[in-house]
Amino acid sequence: MRAVDATLGEVAGNQLQNLCRIVGIDETDPVRLLGDVLSATRSRPLSQPPLWPSDVADDNTPVEFSVQFEDNGSRHLRILAETIPAAPGPAANLQAARDLIDALAGRYDLSLDRLHSVQDLFSSASPQGKFSWWFSLIFTPDGAPKFKVYFNPGVCGAESAPHLVEEAFARLGLPEAYSTISKYALRRGELDRLTFFAVDLDHSPQSRVKLYVSQHAARPADAEFAASAVPCIDPGLARALCSVLAPGTEVFTGRPLISSYSFVEGDHEKPSNYSLYLPIRDYVPNDAVARERVQQHLRMHRIDPAVVDEVIDAVTDRRLEDNAGLLAHVSLRLSPNRTGTTVYVSSEAYGGTPRRDR
Ligand code: TRP
């Protein structure tokens, strides 16, 4: 239960502390970083409307949590966030994101070369689209927090997105990447849309550069084909995810499936990772059904299904039958010799996904 005059910082902070406990992470860094990224929205009472209509979550909460389970048993906790300044607007939000990176660079050992080589492409004096730059804050039980920046390929208008992405890959030493992805995930014209281009800000050789494509009205076979861009993985697992989380769905006509590709050190024309994001909230009557299906998926990947309840209990005490959207997305990450599942859980600080008639 939440106090009448609770702030976003208090509610999200409490959820984050609970999630840290489950994943076994010291809460000091996460809590401080949540405050940094919430910025002007932190001390805003939830009785007032959101300061900015962030697209991070359906109810405009500017943060979303996720817990990543590797099939080797390791776990990570992540926060997807948009930083919103006191006087928000497309240009002010972009500036706030840049300022946050500067502040983080003063405190953590960040690798900023990739960011610096592409940031001008994804900047604009009058940014377009639903956001300019988002952040992922990634916490592990051991080790310093890691950061990822997501850029909006449509920041200068949707028509220039392909050029920006192609140029960004080229600058990062991946001149073939765009044409590879085009062949596997940009085949259906307007239905396949460039959604996020992301770079990691850490020194690790893993997951350097990532491109996300929203695949509207896609079939499970489209996801399977998209996965087949990556050598030495089983693309059939993408189709299996669809059939467990959205059984009977032939065409994903609600929120789109999203395919992403990561290029890590040593990758040239082919990526070494494919992830499929399934917006489960649009394909279930409510979160009780979503919970069951996510548990079934975890069982198939030999991950203890009880973690789903721990994650849910960390963020809410509402009845799961009352709405869908607490479990927002589920993603499956496929690399040679490694798979992982990530469960995205909404804060619902501003009421959660608007109820549909079902
Ligand atoms: N809310 C947006 C959406 O659902 C963006 C987003 C938030 C998202 N978390 C995500 C997209 C996780 C993919 C996966 O599309």
From TrEMBL:
InterPro entries: ABBA, ABBA_NscD-like. One of its GO terms (biological process) is alkaloid metabolic process. It comes from the Bacteria. It holds the Pfam family Trp_DMAT. One of its GO terms (molecular function) is transferase activity, transferring alkyl or aryl (other than methyl) groups. Keywords: Transferase. This is Tryptophan dimethylallyltransferase.
